[in-house]
Amino acid sequence: MRISFSATNPCHVFPIAREIDRAGALGCYYSGYPGWKLRPPNGMTTRTHSLRTNIVYALLRLPAQLKPSSRSLFLWQDRGFDAWVGRSLQTCDFVHGMPGQCLATFRAAKRLNIRTVLNHATGPAREWVRIMEPEYLRVGLELEDSCVYDAAYFSREAEEYALADFHCVASSVVRGQLIEIGIAAERVWQIPCGADPDIFHPGDSKPSGESFRIIFAGQVGLRKGVRTILEALEMSIRDDEQIDFFGALLDEARPDLSSYTGKVPLRFHGPVAQQQLASQFRMGSVLVLPSLEEGFGLVVPQALNCGLPVIVSDRVGAKDLIRHRENGSIIPVNDPLALRRELDYWAEHPARFREQWSWEAPARILLALSEKALK
Fold it and tell me: What is the β-pairing status of strands 26-31 and 3-7?
């Protein structure tokens, strides 16, 4: 059996492809990332087509008045990559592609009699829009200016869905969304994401006993529930509380940040390397991820591997890994009071534990489901 994968950026697809390669079942990993940055293991079959990706990220560094819209750039990147994979696709049993970047790939797969798997990092695009549109309107922004989802995207996505033999999701949240729109349950494979235990592990670092240190990791934007975090912080009566944000600060979050009146210090560090993030997890008190929409949330297994409790909203797919008030908490979405209660709980019940969510188990699940589909 040979399983191939296609992804513009590595996200959750590359780690599981690497494990499939270790199991001797990888066909090819098609990447829009340059090989020097992807750094695949020796012997792993990869093909890269990164010219457009390199151009996109170079243009994104230009001053705002000179920079093309990120929406048009990412569409140009994904569609050019997809067209290249469609021309380059080699024989295998399955090919995984991501929504919005696999139409040409799946068309080629059908000609070659290759089974197609639509691999979802998030839920269906229309569900994303339904959830996020009111939030963008709340801060005076037009949703179409902030994402790639429009009529042309939905039309393309519908054809990708029609060409997909199976759907691969990381959580019960996305599985439920797909079944709700009519995808047969037996065609939806649920395979959780993992984390690299060589990077994300308990280590020797100890959390500081001087303060209750909240960690946020990810883009600081509307989708991640920043308003919920800020409102929960404004309720704090603690003198030892602080929060550290690791990730890009998006302009869309500035209206909420500018209206923040809490006494808890907000510290912004920007994007950091995974090794540095793991170190921060080991020294933190709790990770918060109260997202409005989150197909999984890779930072959850990463934090759990470091022994850090995690508070997530019930819209975060990685809630599947959380045992309430054992290794974290699950709260209702858009509920700052519930978040405040759980922050206080973990401040009063500090905890460290040893868990390992690696990519080996997800790869075994994928292999078993693929073998079953071949019969």
Answer: parallel
Residue 7, both tokens: 């992804």
- Across all residues in the chain, what is the average pLDDT? 94
Q: Give the least confident one: 28-42, 105-119, 215-229.
A: 28-42
Bridge partners, residue 119, by sequence: 168
Are the C-beta atoms of 267 and 236 separated by less than 8 Å? Answer: no
* CA quadruple 223, 312, 278, 18: dihedral, nearest 10: -80
CB 290 within 8 A of CB 333: yes
Q: Is the pLDDT of residue 174 over 90?
A: yes
Extended strands (E) in the chain: 3-7, 26-31, 46-48, 94-97, 115-119, 166-169, 188-190, 212-217, 241-246, 266-268, 286-289, 310-313, 328-331
Q: What is the pTM of this model?
A: 0.94
DSSP sequence for 71-132: HHHHHHHHHHHHHHHHHH----SEEEE-TTS-HHHHHHHHHTT-EEEEE-SSS-HHHHHHHH
The rounded Cα 375 to chain-centroid distance in angstroms is 32
Three-state secondary structure along 142-164?
Answer: CHHHCCCCCHHHHHHHHHHHHHC
CA distances from 40 to 14, 155, 315 (A): 9, 34, 33
* pLDDT tens column, 108-154: 999 999 999 999 999 999 999 999 999 999 999 988 777 888 888 99
Q: Classify burial at 196, counting beta carbons within 10 Å of its beta carbon; exposed 0-12, middle 13-18, buried 19 or more.
A: middle
- Provide the pLDDT for residue 206: 61
State how far the Cα of 307 lies from the Cα of 287, in Å rounded to an integer.
11
The residue among 103 and 67 whose pLDDT is bigger is: 103
Helix (H, G, I), strand (E, B) or coil at 283: helix
Give 209's pLDDT tier (boundaries 50, 70, 90).
low
Please spell the DSSP secondary structure of 198-215, one letter per residue.
TTSS--S----SSSEEEE
Question: Which residues fall within 8 angstroms of residue 27, CB to CB, at 6 or more apart?
Answer: 2, 3, 4, 45, 90, 91, 92, 93, 94, 95
